Amino acid sequence: MRFSHLLSSTLLVSMAAGSAIAQSGGAFDRSRNVSVTERPKPEYQTSGIDLGGFILSPQLVTALRYDDNIFALRTNQQDDFILRANPSAIIQSKWSRHSLSFNANVDHNEYLDLGSESYTNYGFGADATIDAGRGMGFGFGGEFQGLNEPRSSSSSPINTIKPIEYELATFYGNVTHEVNRIRLKASAGLRDYNYKDGQIIGGGISEQDDRDRQVWDFNTRGEYAVSPDTSVFLEASYNDRSYDLQPPVVALDRDSDGYQFLVGTNFDLTNLIRGEVSFGYLHQSFQSPFLPNINGFAVRSNVEWFPTQLTTVSFGISRSVDDSGLQGASGFLSSKAYVKIDHELLRNFIVSAEGTYGYDKYKGINRNDERFGGTLSGTVLLRRGIGLTAYFLHADQNSRGTASGSDYVDNRVGVSIKFQR
User: Fold this and answer.
1) To the nearest 5 percent, what fractions of the chain are helix, strand and coil?
2) Burial track 13-32 (b if 16+ CB lie within 10 A, e otherwise)
3) Number of domains, the chain
4) How far apart (Å, rounded) are the C-alpha atoms in residues 179 and 323?
5) Beta bridge partners of 412
6) How many other C-beta atoms are found inside a 10 Å radius of the C-beta of residue 291?
7) Does pLDDT of 32 surpass 50?
8) pLDDT band at 377 (very low <50, low <70, confident <90, very high)
9) Could you give the C-alpha distances from 169 to 89, 123, 348, in angstroms and in order?
């Protein structure tokens, strides 16, 4: 694959360049400010189970929620109550230099009336970091997940008995070299999607094999610390997307590759603000002449503002090229933005409000989707290792064009309780 040669060459260049620079003294540390949700609360936190060189941290989330539009439809909405059980565990090493961790989780959602909508997601994985000294570090890991596609997804068929199931295997590796005011990073990742066919209401099969694909992601970044609290960077990324099924089995070759260039700044200024802001250009080229390319302005920004020690305001915006399961569409340019406020009313009580916006512009078909969302939530820590959360979520989608999807409004309200050891 054309990606492999580019990956190996650039990793060697990045490591060689890094070894020629003198050791850093922490010019990229961004821990001056602590957000409301990050602030340690030792009196409510648990220490896990000591296994010698490792710590086991088990967790169980149980929840009940109400959803007034299960299938995300404009008409004939159906509602239901859903019970959720989500056990998980992390095993983390206690080593002073390197680190190794394992994780596993199961997330079961049981619909009380619409039993065919019940689903179970699961996942397990491992991550490791190696401190090679002299400012050099390596990281690698992987995860395997069994997932169910949300009914609100534009690629999800609306006529299947159950949500579409798929498997996602993810692998990654990265290297970082930091010397004085310079930090170099290179990373590579693989995502392997495997969709399962769905059963159509009334009989028949909804074929999903044409969505199976492998996605290679590669990223390099060079960063310079202008001061102890501000840095500037250049970042380049490349992706290669290969679909399993090719013509004549399917009508179109959906393979593509793309790149993105960003220039930006990373900062943690005084006690008021920290984050990262970057702008640039992105482009995705498709193998089939019948699928138009996608390109445009790129942005990736996430900023936190701390008006007081008890309040954190977060906001961000991003643009990316996403694959589409819709016939005739090469993909879509996805633009997203959010604003979130977290406020600590009491030492053990945090309230949050979040607003989201999304706009998906499809290429190859006449369709544009616009989404608005809002969430209100409150979390109270009842005692060490036990927390209670209540929330309300509102989602509104407007789809336009001759190939438009469904307009819908969806409201959810729920309560969950989390147990940690």
Assistant:
1) 5, 65, 30
2) ebbeebeebeebeebbeeee
3) 1
4) 38
5) 67, 393
6) 21
7) yes
8) very high
9) 19, 10, 38
**Could you write out the DSSP letters of every residue in 31-51?**
-SS--TTTS--TTT----EE-
Quickly count: other Cβ atoms within 10 Å of residue 94's Cβ: 11
Cα dist. 78→117, 370, 385, 392 in Å? Answer: 12, 22, 36, 18
The CATH code of the domain that includes 397 is 2.40.160
* pTM given for the model: 0.89
Contact 344, 310 (CB under 8 A): yes
Residue type, 91: I
Domain that residue 363 falls in = 2-420
Tokens of 219: 């990223």
* pLDDT (0 to 100) of residue 361: 96
CB atoms near residue 110 (< 10 Å): 14
CA 375/CA 393 separation, integer angstroms: 4
pLDDT at residue 193 tops 60: yes
From the centroid of its chain, how far is CA 196? 22
State the chain's mean pLDDT as an integer. Answer: 92
Tens-digit pLDDT profile for residues 229-263: 999 999 999 999 999 999 999 999 999 999 999 99
